[in-house]
Amino acid sequence: MPLSLQHPDLDDFEPVVRRLIYVAHESGGSFLRAEGLGPGDLSNHPKAFRIFLRKCHYGFDLAQRQIGKLVVEYERRVRELEAELKKLRRSRDARVEPVEDLAEVLRNRQLVLRRILDSILFTVLLPDASIQRRLTSNEEIRAIDPDVVARTLGIAVERNKADRTRFNIVSDLTTVIHYGDLLEIDKRAPKNRQWRLIELKDGKMNELIATELSYQGGTSAGYVIAALEAAHGKSVAKQARRIVRQQQRLTRLEEIIDTDVGVDP
Length: 265
Hints:
It is a single chain. The chain is built from seven helices and three strands; from the N terminus they run ααααβββααα. The chain is mainly alpha-helical. The radius of gyration is 22 Å and the shape is flat. The chain has a three-stranded antiparallel β-sheet.
């Protein structure tokens, strides 16, 4: 059944999709065509390859920024509509169906946008795109928190600006990455490991916990957590345990992707 993507209260969606696909997947190709080169020529033109890589990176980054902005905008609008629907249903208002239709179209548009970012992920991971299957914990498409996604996107943009050979994808904007906040792909790294999952630690207390755990040395995580609980209370210890579990999940995931052996998180 085809997705309903158009609505009289919304702008035409097709030009948006076309523009995003072009920005994401043609930025590097446009440079090559302008230079009279093809993909097969890059191995013999190191300078052209470096420029091509930066052009692709910029296109991916710009597309992700625009996708993120729209996904967050749609999510906030859908939440407003869902709150409105509760009131309309209680009063048996005839406007329920039109509001439901608008919310459905916005959700469908979100899905299309996130699938475009999936295609960027697939392209950036080449020739190791098969690891995507390990980045997904189940078949469900995760719901997003618009405030968290907006904040994470801002961090990804800054990281991408800082180094055009490393590309940071916001996990929650894709439909397939169910671990970490960011997936960083480093094209300068050895080919057997060009990626890493990153958990962002927002807030002073999370930063403190992460610092204490990172400096534990030969001390067990349990001892560090007990010390944190003594100094800051049970809620901080609970948060520290959550951070440890997150890191353990990422470590197990990386091991199973690298070796194809291990405990699936």
